[in-house]
Structure formats: structure tokens, C-alpha cells
Automatic annotation (TrEMBL):
Belongs to the peptidase M20A family. The keyword Endoplasmic reticulum does not apply. It comes from Natrialba hulunbeirensis JCM 10989. This is Acetylornithine deacetylase/succinyl-diaminopimelate desuccinylase. Its cofactor is Co(2+); Zn(2+).
């Protein structure tokens, strides 16, 4: 047997090796280092004879990839994001965060579960089904997204859909332990800020310390959160409003009263809530604080992920449930994911029915020593290929 070529090693077709190769390409966001990983994905597709495009929108310094096999319908879009959250202090990791270490049946590294193993599964599904698509055994086509910016709500997936890498149905390959999510919460980050009057701390009465207002602000936001927890979606759970940051006096002399204070509020939004209605709630809350405490606060919304949902019995969801339970013991009950994913871009922006589904546990995402169990990953690849074959057989899947 001839030794494995360097090109085969560089562009592997087995799931563990390909996933590890992607993990080794650091693509942290922030700041947004996706381009090197995007170039590798593009080169991998090109090496294996699959048409793909490096996309410069929305940011030419942060490229992403769209690939396509076939021209028929239905078209299945497999979506993954290239960016990963920062690994932090590498000394805290047992394995190097970008080492792509495989040990004891696990792949370790930042992005191993969120979500480069899933991207590798999408790439391999396209490759493994290419022959049947091209020779007409399967009537439909496959599109693969390797998107930028998901972790910070950048419009990577949106721009890929707008560039023509769209389809009839979509799967956002986040780690759900192969459970099908037909809905998801939205999220909005609000900054509520108010001014102070700087003065030397040796004579504080000459100024106004904005930190004094933190207690009433937090008390009002805690009351708001308690009210929200009474709202509940049957699939996604409760709404929440959580203070995640408080800032005052950064960069100034410690002996000087701060010129302003701000809090960041993380608002989790249920599928039946609108962002306009949430904005109105925040406006009323801030107005009450100003009226009752003389705070003079203002607010703005920094980042927004809208909620999204499709019918729980949509054929796409039923197909993935059937194949998931045939291969694994994934629950089949209707479910909604509590995190925010790019599925909203499919459903709300492009009007494409989509689910969130993928191998691996969401509990591992963003953690030190992040890993994915490779047996579960292989099961995920099998399910994905089986479901794709079902969907691309128009006799068994209605897409209109």
C-alpha cells in the first residue's frame, strides 16, 4: 500500500481528521479571524472538485464560503459558522485550544463542538452525495455555508443567502445532541446609561455620583425580570432580562467621581414577542426610573437576534426526527432551543423553513477544554446523510 499523500492528509475525507484540521485554524471572534479557515474550506472543496466561492461580503477582511452541488430541487442548505469565541488563557486548557487533539474518542479544542465538527459533516455530506446528485439518482441539490460572524450577530449567513446560496429548506448545525429544534428564543442587548457630575472624592458633595443610582436601577430590572419569568413558551421556556455588565469610571482617576454609569441588559425574547414590543418595555422602564429617581437615563439596543419558529410538524423536522431516532436515542418530542442561532436568517429574512440540529452538546460550547465525542459526531454525519437523501428525493419530500 502506498503511503498517504500530503494532499490527502491536507484535505482529508474522514470526519475526525477534517474536523481537527478546522479546529487548528484559529478563527476567533472578536476580532473576526475567519479568513484563514474560509480559505481552507474553499481549497478543500476545490481539491475535491466541488464548486465553491469565497465571499467578501459583508467584510472583505473576514471571508466566508458558499458551496453548491447540483441545480435541481429541492435544495437543502447546510449552515455552519466559522467563527469561535476567544479561547482565553491557554494555560487553563489541558490541551492546546487550537491543537485539534484527538484522545480517548474525543476531539478537543475551541470550536470542536461549536461548530467546526458540524461544518466538517456538512462538507463530507456534500462530497458523499455528489455522485448521486450529479448522475440523477437524487433530484435535488445541496448548498453548504461556512459563515462568518455568528457569535456576534454579524450578517454572515444573511449575506450568503442574499448572494444566492439559498434553497428550499435549511439546517443550522448547532450542537443539539441530534435533537430537532423548530423554534428559538431571540436576544437583544440593551445599554442603559445615565450621567454623573465629576468631582474630587475628597469633596464629593460638589458633584453627583452616578453609581448611587445603581441600586434602584438594579432593583427595577430585577422586578422586570421577575415579571418576564411568568411568560413561557411551550418549547423555548421562559423569557429573561439579566444584567450582565456594570461600568463606571473606567480610565479615570480613582479619586474622581465617575462621569457616567451604564448597565448592560441581556433580554431573552420568546417567539411570540416582537422586538418593537420589547423596545417599548425598555422605554417605559427607563421613563419610570427617570420619573421616580431623577436619573436622566437613556438607552440603546446594541445587538439583536430575532426569535424564529416553524410548525413543529414541518416535513423537514419530521424527517430529521425519524433519522435521528433511528441512529441515536435523541428525544423526538417537539422542542425549541434557548440559545440564539442563525436559523432566524433563514426563517425571518429569507422565508426558508429551517431547523436547528447537530451533534454534540451545547453545554460544551464556549468552555475551557471544549470537546466533542467522536462517536456522536459520526452518528450525526450518518443522520445528516440519511436525511439529506430523503429530502433530495422529491417523491418523498414536498417542498412547495
Amino acid at each position: 500500500m502506498s503511503p498517504e499523500s500530503s494532499e490527502t492528509k491536507r484535505y482529508p475525507t474522514d470526519l475526525p481528521s477534517l474536523a481537527a484540521a478546522l479546529v487548528r485554524l484559529e478563527s476567533e471572534n472578536p476580532p473576526g479571524n475567519e479568513s484563514a479557515c474560509a480559505e481552507y474550506v474553499h481549497d478543500w472543496f476545490t481539491h475535491h472538485g466541488i464548486e465553491s466561492t469565497l465571499i467578501d461580503e459583508p467584510d472583505p477582511d473576514r471571508q466566508q464560503v458558499g458551496a453548491r452541488i447540483g441545480t435541481g430541487r429541492p435544495t437543502l442548505v447546510l449552515n455552519g459558522h466559522l467563527d469561535v469565541v476567544p479561547a482565553g488563557d491557554s494555560d487553563e486548557w489541558t490541551y492546546p485550544p487550537y491543537g485539534g487533539v484527538i484522545e480517548d474518542g474525543r476531539l478537543y479544542g475551541r470550536g470542536s463542538v461549536d461548530m467546526k465538527t458540524a461544518i466538517a459533516s456538512a462538507m463530507l455530506t456534500a462530497l458523499n452525495l455528489r455522485s448521486d446528485i450529479e448522475n440523477g439518482c437524487l433530484d435535488g441539490s445541496i448548498v453548504v455555508h461556512a459563515a462568518m460572524g455568528e457569535e456576534t450577530a454579524d450578517p454572515g449567513t444573511k449575506s450568503l443567502l442574499d448572494a444566492g446560496f439559498d434553497g428550499d429548506v435549511g439546517v443550522v448545525l448547532e450542537p443539539t445532541q441530534c435533537r430537532v429544534a423548530t423554534s428559538e428564543k431571540g436576544m437583544a442587548w440593551y445599554e442603559i446609561r445615565w450621567p454623573g457630575e465629576p468631582a474630587h472624592a475628597s469633596d464629593p458633595d460638589r458633584g453627583a455620583n452616578p453609581i448611587d443610582h445603581v441600586r434602584p436601577v438594579l432593583a427595577r430590572l430585577n422586578d422586570y425580570d421577575a415579571t418576564l419569568r411568568e411568560r413561557r413558551d411551550p418549547l423555548c421556556g421562559r423569557a429573561y432580562a439579566t444584567v450582565t455588565q456594570i461600568s463606571a469610571g473606567e480610565g479615570s482617576n480613582k479619586a474622581v467621581l465617575a462621569d457616567r454609569t451604564a448597565v448592560t441588559l441581556d433580554r431573552r425574547i420568546l417567539p411570540d414577542e416582537t422586538i418593537d414590543a420589547v423596545d417599548d418595555e425598555i422605554e417605559q422602564l427607563v421613563s419610570e426610573l427617570n420619573r421616580d429617581h431623577g436619573i436622566k437615563a437613556t438607552w440603546n439596543r446594541n445587538e439583536t437576534y430575532s426569535s424564529a419558529e416553524i410548525p413543529i410538524d414541518h416535513p423537514l423536522a419530521e424527517i430529521f426526527r425519524d433519522h435521528s431516532t433511528a441512529v441515536t436515542d435523541a428525544p423526538t418530542e417537539p422542542w425549541g432551543i434557548r440559545a440564539s442561532t442563525d436559523v432566524r436568517e433563514f426563517i425571518n429574512h429569507a422565508d426558508i423553513p429551517a431547523i436547528t440540529w447537530g451533534p454534540g452538546s451545547l453545554a460544551q460550547a464556549h468552555t475551557v477544554d471544549e470537546y466533542i465525542d467522536l462517536d456522536e459526531a459520526r452518528n450525526g454525519l450518518e443522520i445528516l446523510e440519511r436525511a439529506a437523501r430523503t429530502i433530495l428525493s422529491t417523491d418523498s419530500f414536498e417542498f412547495d
